[in-house]
Specification:
- This is MD-2-related lipid-recognition domain-containing protein.
- This protein is mainly beta.
- About 15% of the residues lie in helices and about 50% in strands.
- It is built from 2 helices and 10 strands, in the order H-E-E-E-E-E-E-E-H-E-E-E.
- Strands 2, 4, 6, 7, 9 and 10 form a 6-stranded mixed sheet that branches.
- A hairpin with a 2-residue loop joins strand 6 and strand 7.
- The longest helix is centred in the first third of the chain and has 16 residues.
- The chain is globular.
- The termini are far apart.
Length: about 150
């Protein structure tokens, strides 16, 4: 293998550890949701406290969505620990046209967030509060970068 090929492979392996697709399931497998979710990418994975984390959700709709809300519930070891609601149009371009679209949310988790495996449930509601989709997935939070004597 040439050095160039080896360098390209190394870069690809490095990038694959930064962004990883996450297994997603619907809250109700028997429900015919208007919005179909194709996948969730989390970057970085695992999330590092004190640094920006981005959740990108790729989805598809057969109807125009002019406004709505994202309702997010987070659990840690089965215990509900956090809820938040976001305006859909703050997380994607509105109106959402028929076809594929991306919902992306970034935030920095506080340094005191404990490491471990978390569960997230996200409901997407339209302007009339009708549930367009509901998904569940897990994500991991690793240890934040700690300061050392060398950093001083």
């Amino acid at each position: 293998m040439s050095r160039f090929t080896l360098a390209i492979l190394s870069c690809l392996l490095f990038v694959s550890t930064i962004v990883r697709a996450t297994d997603v399931s619907y809250c109700d497998n028997n429900e015919e949701y208007q919005v179909k979710v194709h996948g969730v990418d989390i970057s970085p994975d695992p999330i590092v406290t004190g640094q920006p984390a981005t959740f990108s959700i790729s989805a598809n709709t057969n109807n125009v969505i002019s406004r709505g809300k994202l309702v997010i519930e987070v659990s840690y070891f089965g215990w509900h620990i956090h809820s938040e609601t976001h305006d859909l149009c703050d997380e994607t371009s509105c109106p959402v046209a028929v076809g594929d679209f991306l919902v992306a949310h970034s935030q920095v988790l506080p340094g005191y967030t404990p490491p471990g495996k978390y569960s997230l449930t996200m409901k997407m509601l339209d302007g009339g509060r009708k549930e367009l989709t509901c998904i569940k997935f897990s994500f991991k939070i690793g240890l934040g970068s700690s300061s050392s004597v060398a950093d001083m």
